Amino acid sequence: MGWPGEEGWQQCLHNFHSLPLRPLSAHFGFHPTSAFFSVALLVAAPLAGQQSLEIRGKAGKLMELPVAMATAVKTRVEAIAPSRTLEEDIPGHYRITPERRALLNTIRYAEGTWIGGSREGYRVLYGGGRFQSLDRHPDIVVRKRYTSAAAGAYQFLPGTWGDAASKLRLSDFSPASQDQAALYLVEKRGALQRFEQEGLSAAVLARLSAEWASLPASHGGSYYGQPVKSRAELRAFFSAELARQKGIRSDRLATRAWAQRGQRPG
After folding, report:
1. Structural domains in the chain?
2. What is the chain's Cα-based Rg?
């Protein structure tokens, strides 16, 4: 797919605020990291006194944009620039590898806190309500079909959270702390090492079903007699999410390599 004309760019800029890199790159037909650095290359030259700027690649000139349009693109691209930080490099008791992130997100999906991958899921109360402060577990009792004070992306009960927070010395209820506490529970159920060896197997799900009621036990139903996601549905979600997480990691490695070499990835 070729580069769009000026009308296409105007339409792109009209929607640019909400376009993440991957859909943007899919529209233009190239790798998202390359997309970012191709556009960033455009605005690296001084803007003063120029009517337009070029994007150049290995094959020569790719396209030309008016300066005003280029500036608008630069502002938004800088805001959505891919991070060079790998999640697994962030300090924490448990490293967050793509596999572990896919597992965590699968648990969120089962528990109803996925919300399209939004961080809003870290503020969910039992029943779907929201709480505001992430300073601590909200400890709000909700009465619906059941009565529960579960909260957060992994629907921690106050006592469960207190145990994990104490063991891991977590000082808040932030997304990072919730992720660490969830992996602590996975390990506590004897499932972490098995997951590393087998992936999201029936045996791993069965071990985790005692912690999260939405995961299937060995008999396929809920450990607690509550609504449960099927193994097939969870595995399909996990596989797609793992592929996505590996893609994110690949993008960040490419960005890091570019920064270290001072060259744009092709």
Report:
1. 6-81 (no CATH), 88-246 (1.10.530.10)
2. 22
pLDDT tens, per residue, the chain with 266 residues: 344 444 444 444 444 333 344 443 444 433 444 444 344 433 333 333 445 544 444 444 444 555 555 555 555 544 445 566 788 888 899 999 999 999 999 999 999 999 999 999 999 999 999 999 999 999 999 999 899 999 999 999 999 999 999 999 999 999 999 999 999 999 999 999 999 999 999 999 999 999 999 999 999 888 887 889 999 999 999 999 999 999 988 888 887 776 666 554 44
Alpha carbons 179 and 164: distance in angstroms, whole number: 11
What angle (nearest 5°) sits at the alpha carbon of residue 233, between those of residues 227 and 238?
115
- State the pTM of this model: 0.69
